[in-house]
Design goal:
Bound molecules: calcium ion
Structural class: alpha+beta
Number of strands: 7
Number of domains: 2
Radius of gyration: 18 Å
Strand content: 15-25%
Largest sheet: 4 strands, antiparallel
CATH architecture of the largest domain: Sandwich
CATH superfamily of the largest domain: Crystallins
Shape: globular
């Protein structure tokens, strides 16, 4: 489906010419460009935004926070169950993976991991925790870990 859709799109572009082609390219660049423009360079921090494409910063930190809905740490109150895009600008090596949790207190059965080489997950609506729940609007804690603390199917992007 995807390939035939792309072929149709290419045909439409070919038929309608350069004006349509330019418009389409600009729209796509804006959509994915949100997180690309937000990239700070490696600074040891993780980031979370309320909306997809890194819009509406909820917070950023070099540390971990075991409860995004409490009154303490870098993420508080309504930050819980709100993030729709996240970024890992951590320095590579050691505990360089951000592990996100479905419930507070780093509960082991339900998490998702973001590798520093992935840079960011600009739309969490197509990502799930290891318990199958959607990551979007469901993150309640995060912790810096080594990649050995993340199972094969737990990586998001
Ligand atoms: Ca907190
Ligand atoms: Ca959200
Ligand atoms: Ca995604």
């Amino acid at each position: 489906m995807r390939k035939s859709g792309a072929a149709v799109a290419a045909l439409v572009l070919a038929l309608t010419g350069a004006v349509t082609s330019t418009t389409t390219t600009t729209a796509q660049a804006t959509a994915s460009g949100g997180c690309n423009s937000a990239w700070p360079g490696r600074n040891g921090h993780m980031y979370a935004w309320r909306d997809i494409y890194c819009v509406g910063l909820l917070g950023n930190t070099a540390g971990s926070d075991d409860h995004w809905g409490d009154a303490y740490g870098p993420f508080t109150g309504l930050d819980a169950n709100n993030a729709s895009s996240v970024m890992n600008a951590g320095y590579t090596g050691g505990r360089d993976v951000v592990k996100f949790f479905f419930v507070p207190q780093y509960e082991a059965a339900s998490y998702a991991c973001l590798d520093p080489t992935e840079y960011f997950a600009d739309d969490l609506r197509d990502n799930t925790f290891t318990n199958g729940a959607l990551v979007n609007d469901n993150i309640m804690a995060h912790k810096w870990v080594t990649d050995g603390e993340c199972a094969w199917g737990s990586w998001i992007g």
